[in-house]
Amino acid sequence: MASIFCAISFIKSVFVTSSEKYCTRSAVYRTATNEFAKYKFKAFYMKESSLIEELTEKTITMIIGCFVFEDELNVTVSQSVSLQIKTLQNEPNIYDLPIAPTFRIFSAPVQNPSKPHGDSAIFCLKKGVYNSMNGKTTDLSVICKYNPNPKGCHSNVAEATHCQTVISVAGELIFVEKSIFVLCEAIEWNYYVMRENSKLQLCDGTEP
User: Fold this and answer.
1) pLDDT at 17
2) Which domain holds residue 52?
3) Residue 206 forms part of a structural domain
């Protein structure tokens, strides 16, 4: 299942290991006129693949990868593309970044089912994800916020979260203290219940 990160980023600093197999350090993306979010990245160089271009400092790059939140946002880069953006100065800086929310997809089983939260509703997804920064797997919980309008496209979400489901959400990621929220723009799910004979059974008891 996916935990996909995608953002136009300013590469703030780069450190290439002595083996030159990968590079690390930090990057920034822009969330508002004077608001920026910083994250750590790790990119493995693959000579047989052109998906990851060489990352250099003070460049603006489209970064795509997998994310994990462990005290701070960490991204394992799976694709990078340098962008030719007109800059205010001779060298790019963070103020040359476009104002745009990052695009993220997260898929996981339901940890806590949907419940009202003011005019909205929230539920929580949880799964184990690999953190390339420390080489460990950690549990990542994501709180998902959505509009439960009974006549809207998310009208059946609450019911789905009370069954055994794997849910995929896409939207903007918001950091709140040591938790992360996804402001959901799209929500999809698959029902599953495993019988003793290992056949797949849908939540309503029927077989696919």
Assistant:
1) 87
2) 3-100
3) no
